[in-house]
Prior knowledge:
The protein is mainly beta. The chain is built from three helices and 39 strands.
Amino acid sequence: MEKSAIWAVGLCLVLAGHGFEAEASHQSKPTEQPYRTGYHFQPPKNWMNDPNGPMYFNGVYHFFYQYNPYSALWGNLTWGHSISYDLVNWVHLEHALNPTDPFDINGVYSGSATILPEGVPVILYTGLDSKSRELQNLAVPKNVSDPFLREWIKSPYNPLIAATNEIDEYNFRDPTTAWQGPDKAWRILVGGLINGRGTVLLYQSRDFVSWTMSQTPFHSSNKTGMWECPDFYPVSISSKDGIETSVQNADTKHVLKISFQDNGNDYYIMGKYVPETDTYLVETDFLDEVSGSRYDYGIFYASKTFFDAAKKRRILWAWIKESDSLSAAVEKGWSGIQSIPRSVLLDQTGQRLVQWPIKEIKELHENQVTFFNKDLKGGTVIEVPGTITASQADVEVSFDFPHFKEAEVVDPIWVDPQLLCSQKNASVKGGIGPFGLLVLASKDLTEQTAIFFRIFATQNEKYIVLMCSDQSRSSLRQDVDKTSYGAFVDIDPLHEKISLRSLIDHSIVESFGGEGRTCITARVYPELAINEEAHLYVFNNGTQSVKISRFDAWSMKKAEMVLRIEEDSQLMSS
């Protein structure tokens, strides 16, 4: 019996032993739902956006998320709740938090989970009151011995924190996971807006109920508007292990991530956190560079990390929104998916973060295709042979180069990589590149999504690597966004191969360049290249030949999504 089937059967037995029934999810026919994913996290139906409060507690992964129980469009926000033992296969539980009280009657917005030293998990979240003012609130498990933490109770002290002084009370939300300083007091950050400046504010508490705001903002900028979904955590300088959120020592840097409401992208900075004074000394501030440092240069928003104590790693989630129309969301009956969970750590240079899909997704691999040392001449397109399910696959490829004589000389005005990818898309012939993958492609290549690289030469005999995700020919449909995305990859092709990994799942392509140094996620909605009609190609549209050092591809099995039966015995429809 396959591991996924064993997982599902075993979990159903566990669920039955804890007082409720479960069934495997009903899958829609592929022709009815060609864009629904096979191994990315999705609720059975309706709207989903921000990841909220992910945590590992007593052997179980908990994932909460912004959810509309009534529609495939935004609104009526509650906290959905699902559990897993491996971050791949999931059980959907009852909602954790609903908008039922005066302090959250207009919506239960985003927040975070913290596990207190006595082993009790707590949730801090933003609620919208009857006047749509944003307030910070607390919830605790009704029964902490319940392994699934199915019921949560809101604190009688809510709301705990309201906007004061110059803070915009309608833009004050998304408390972070708490951390303890050397004085044992708890700290959190809350996103805000003060006189048009994006801001994060620091609050302290010794009992998790009474919170005091720091006299000055923790960090702010006049270059942006509202700062949403802040995340603040340490990364190790010397180790590849993740570290717990309260760790502060000479071997750590601290990451501050902000979701910029102005442009819908997540940015991060790094620096030294001084816990004695609660000051943050940044290395390079937000938007000091053209592109800024981002987890992902495609569609990737409202991200949230948590420390996985079981495997000593920090795991990153993000909401991947739709890029088709609202009417299409209504027709599908759902909107929004989550990224594949990624491990995140500091790279060897200490200057940026690297990300990689969690190892557990390899359990979904089947039907592997592998080949080595294949020359890819200029103008060549090669279909990947074998039994790969090209609409639901995991692909890894690395490229090598005999020389760099034909590299185009970089123009000094090429400072915006996304614009450069739009101007020099996959159909524009270059010197070294474009070369890479054509995914979710139709047989005649009428539809294709190209993930590719170009190599440019500088005046001082160095090389710049550009990574692009080109959606310009991804669909014949006219009601979808076909924006191309791009970023430079911090890699020296003289001394290392250029690698690409792409996770393909019907309407999403997550790509990792340079072993996770640059990541780009895209949503695509082909009309022709769906299900069995999707094809996978390797291509080179440059004048210079490149060598495929190694190529590996796998079909991906479907992840198990188990649906809970409500007390009234009505199964949530998929």
